[in-house]
Amino acid sequence: MLKKISIIGGGLSGLSAACYLAKSGHHVDIYEKNNSLGGRARQIQTPDGYVFDMGPSWYWMHDVLENFFADFGKKSDQYYELISLDPQFEMVFSDGTIQIPKDFSELTKLFESMEPGAGKRLNAFMEDAKIKYTVSMTNYIEKPCLSLTEFFTLDIFKSVMKLNLFSDFRSFVRKYFRHPKLIALMEFPVIFLGAAPQSIPALYSLMNYGGLVLGTKYPLGGFFKIIEAMQSIAIELGVKIHCNCSVHKMTIYNDQIKSLQVNENQIITDLVVASADYHHIESLLPKDCVNYSEEYWDSRSLSPSTLIFYLGLDKPLPGLLHHTLFFEPSLDQHLHELYKESKWPSNPLFYVCCPSKTDRIVMPHNHENLFLLMPIPAGVSDKPNLHEYYFELMLKRIEKHTGFTDLKSHIDYKKSFCISDFIRDYNAFKGNAYGLANTLKQTAILKPSIKNKKIKNLYYAGHLTVPGPGVPPSIISGKIVAKQILRTLD
Ligand SMILES: Cc1cc2nc3c(=O)[nH]c(=O)nc-3n(C[C@H](O)[C@H](O)[C@H](O)COP(=O)(O)OP(=O)(O)OC[C@H]3O[C@@H](n4cnc5c(N)ncnc54)[C@H](O)[C@@H]3O)c2cc1C
Question: Does pTM surpass 0.90?
Answer without folding.
Answer: yes
